[in-house]
Predict the 3D structure of the following.
Amino acid sequence: MKKHDHTDHQSGIIDSDCLEAFDHVYAYINGELHDEETKAKIEHHLSHCKSCYSRAEMERKINDRLKAAQKPSPPKQMKKRLKDLIDGF
């Protein structure tokens, strides 16, 4: 399907489909959107609106980086202690 670009976004005018999509995009990105009808509408809109798709992808990348940054690294000695523990059995 060909994406349209909603050229009005550049002028600051955003149509109602775009506003509706972004009411739900964060839940969609996080996998928290459970209403199948709304999910289908968001997917349909993102597959046709280049501007919203680009913004959603940017939000997804930011979200992924934030999640990755929040994952604590295990202590360096943990691997050695686990190996020693397993070897002791």
